[in-house]
Design a protein that fits this description.
heterodimer, A: 387 residues, alpha/beta, Rossmann fold, 2 domains, 9-stranded mixed sheet, 6-stranded mixed sheet, 14 helices, B: 287 residues, mainly alpha, globular
């Protein structure tokens, strides 16, 4: 009898222990991004930053193991993004989605996450309107309004009176033009001309001539980083605009992954942006050191920071709400933490990151070019959400 | 008046870059009549090579240019012997498919070793100095490109029209069997012409990189530009490509000065109009 009792007790304990173990589960996070083709840099930056975060913080939250699953969509491709999300949600049973380099890729998953009640953390896609499409979207990157308005305010405070805007003729460019223009005029400045340059432009010399002829003291530029920015900044320095005293203010043109390719012509370019890899804080130095240790050839940029803070947010949401999507979104609202980019928080209405926007100037630092911060606009929310 | 002058100067400078990047194609596609979509690939290989030599090994620009062009020719020769030799006999569609396949291989190779970011080529700093022409400022490298482009078009014109090699090449392209029966070693002529085309592609890629920066997807990004220049110029005519490049450059620049909001549509409308009037291009060799 006593034996039986002991046996039962042992079984009970074992069951309890096993039951306890079953409560701790593997929580899967699906990362949808571009890992191949001309835009593969996005996926690479995301993945490396997540791996740095995991290396620093482990892969367990409350005893649950976190597993990241990566899906390639090969560029701006909403259909592929939707298919990837479907597969992740149904076959892999992910409880969180993340990634999203391009706006259409994020928009495409909105109906799916609404139905599945799964939070989707946007690491980049910077159009304000995305977060209106689903209450399950949370964004850790930036929006154009968030950086273009501070750029305009700073320019107005620092002597710019007449500005010509020169933007690439596509949605983000037009957003940037509107955001900068309205903010600059509010500060009492004048926009003397608005130039929209076709995306395929290779020779910017004619635009430089028009910028010169416009009589502006500053040009606000917005172009996709890469070949377009390379040719634009080259034309800016070679057509004598610098000598003519026409200032340059931009946003993300001097991205860390392409800045060295721009070369000497980039030195002195002023931009307003939310992250520079030489931001001076211990957290950022620790982040950069770990990244350098794991991926010696890599350099952190805004995509890395979006993913790093995104990973942090996912860990926090799991810690506070486990796998309950609705609870997790509620938990994310109002969260604030110290990020390598500075203090950040999640605005409860727009579910978008509130952050400092830094004014930086390109400088040489040893063998490389860096965006050196010298001024900042504090705690900027997504200024485009209510437009 | 100043605007008109600016348009002409900027247009010629831009047109010369267009000529530079497509002159190799006017040899392979124009003269040899292969639909060589891999043209940009050779430019990419040349540019990537120049990037590695100038940035990693600190080689000065001119020797690096020469070394890269030679390297591309060295790659092109076995490629012609082993692959292109068969492609010549393909139908046009098959040529398109085969050469685009070669482009993908080239892109993937560069992507694997150098990644998909911009591959800058270091030039002497004097090259980017602005030169004041009085009515406008032009970077020195544009002037260099204009001079090199003029030298190139003269050299090629003389080579094709005035030398024995040129006669052999034209004969071999027009009728391979007759040319061979007259004692012309057509495979060798083809090999030499192909190597020339690849070498010119490399020169164009490197010199044009100031405007069209080299990166892994270069061949696809600018494919339409290359093809436009050669098509508008008229197949088989180097001088045609030259005139086409200059007029397209001036047209595009004029569009950007005068009708900036119409943008690239202007450029393509102009091409449609041109090809409607002259379906075979500006200058066409009667065959």
């Amino acid at each position: 009898m006593r034996r039986l009792c002991a046996g039962l007790l042992a079984t009970a304990i074992a069951t309890f222990a096993l039951g306890g173990a079953a409560l701790a589960e593997t929580i899967k996070v699906g990362v949808i991004a571009t890992f191949s083709g001309p835009n593969a840099i996005w996926g690479k930056q995301f993945k490396e930053a997540i791996q740095v975060y995991v290396a620093q913080h482990g892969n367990e939250v409350n005893g649950n193991t976190i597993e990241f699953i990566y899906k390639d969509v090969g560029g701006p491709n909403p259909d592929a993004s939707k298919a990837a999300a479907q597969e992740l949600l149904i076959r892999e049973g992910v409880k969180y989605l993340a990634g999203f380099d391009f706006t259409p890729n994020a928009l495409a998953v909105a109906p799916l996450i609404n139905q599945a009640k799964v939070p989707a953390i946007i690491f980049n896609a910077a159009t304000s309107a995305i977060n209106k499409q689903s209450k399950y979207f949370v964004r850790t990157s930036f929006t154009l309004w968030q950086v273009a308005v501070p750029a305009a305010q700073w320019a107005a405070k620092n002597g710019a009176k007449k500005v010509v805007t020169a933007v690439s003729d596509y949605n983000p460019g037009i957003d940037a033009e509107t955001a900068f223009g309205s903010a600059f005029e509010q500060q009492g400045g004048t926009i003397v001309e608005k130039i929209r340059m076709p995306l395929q432009t290779t020779d910017f010399a004619p635009f430089m001539q028009r910028i010169k002829n416009s009589g502006a003291d500053t040009v606000f530029a917005f172009l996709p980083a890469g070949p377009a920015t390379f040719a634009f900044t080259k034309a800016y320095s070679e057509n004598g605009l610098k000598e003519a005293g026409i200032g340059f203010i931009g946003t993300g043109e001097t991205d860390e992954t392409t800045i060295d390719a721009l070369g000497e012509q980039a030195i002195g370019l002023t931009t307003a942006y939310h992250y520079s890899d030489v931001h001076t804080s211990d957290l950022n130095r620790a982040f950069a050191a770990k990244l350098g240790e794991l991926f010696p050839k890599s350099r952190a940029n805004m995509a890395s920071m979006g993913a790093y803070d995104g990973a942090h947010l996912i860990y926090k949401m799991i810690e506070l709400a486990g796998t309950d999507g609705d609870k997790a979104i509620e938990a994310a609202k109002g969260l604030s933490w110290e990020s390598p980019r500075g203090p950040v928080s999640i605005d409860p209405t727009s579910r978008h990151v509130v952050q400092n926007v830094y004014i930086r100037r390109v400088e040489r630092d040893g063998g490389r070019l860096v965006n050196r911060e010298f001024d900042l606009v504090k705690s900027v929310p997504d200024l485009g959400f209510d437009r | 008046m100043t605007v008109a002058l600016s348009i002409v100067v900027d247009g010629i400078a831009y047109g010369m870059i267009l000529f530079m990047i497509s002159v190799g194609l006017s040899v392979t596609m124009g003269l040899m009549r292969i639909v060589n979509l891999a043209h940009g690939g050779f430019a990419l290989l040349g540019g990537a090579c120049a990037h590695v030599l100038t940035m990693r090994y600190g080689m000065p620009f001119v020797p690096a240019l020469a070394a890269s062009v030679i390297a591309v020719i060295v790659i092109a020769i076995p490629l012609e012997r082993l692959v292109y030799r068969h492609i010549y006999r393909f139908s046009e569609l098959e040529q398109v498919l085969a050469t685009i396949g070669i482009v993908f291989v080239m892109i993937a190779t560069v992507n694997l070793f150098l990644g998909s970011t911009l591959l800058t080529i270091r030039m002497p700093p004097e090259v980017s100095l602005p030169v004041n022409l009085g009515f406008k400022v032009l970077p020195l490298h544009r002037i260099i490109v204009i001079v090199v482009g003029l030298l190139m078009v003269t050299g090629l014109y003389l080579l094709v029209e005035r030398t024995r090699f040129g006669i052999y090449l034209r004969a071999a392209v027009d009728n391979q069997n007759t040319a061979a029966s007259l004692g012309i070693d057509t495979p060798k002529v083809y090999l030499a012409a192909f190597a020339l085309g690849a070498g010119l592609a490399a020169v164009g890629g490197i010199l044009g990189a100031e405007l069209l920066p080299i990166e892994a997807y270069y061949p696809l990004r600018y494919m339409v530009l290359f093809l436009t220049v050669v098509t508008v110029g008229g197949m088989g005519s180097i001088v045609g490509s030259f005139i086409a490049a200059l007029s397209l450059g001036i047209l595009d620049t004029a569009g950007r000065y005068l009708l900036p909001d119409v943008g690239t549509i202007f450029f393509f409308l102009a091409i449609i109009a041109l090809l409607a009037l002259r379906p075979n291009g500006l200058l066409v060799r009667p065959s």
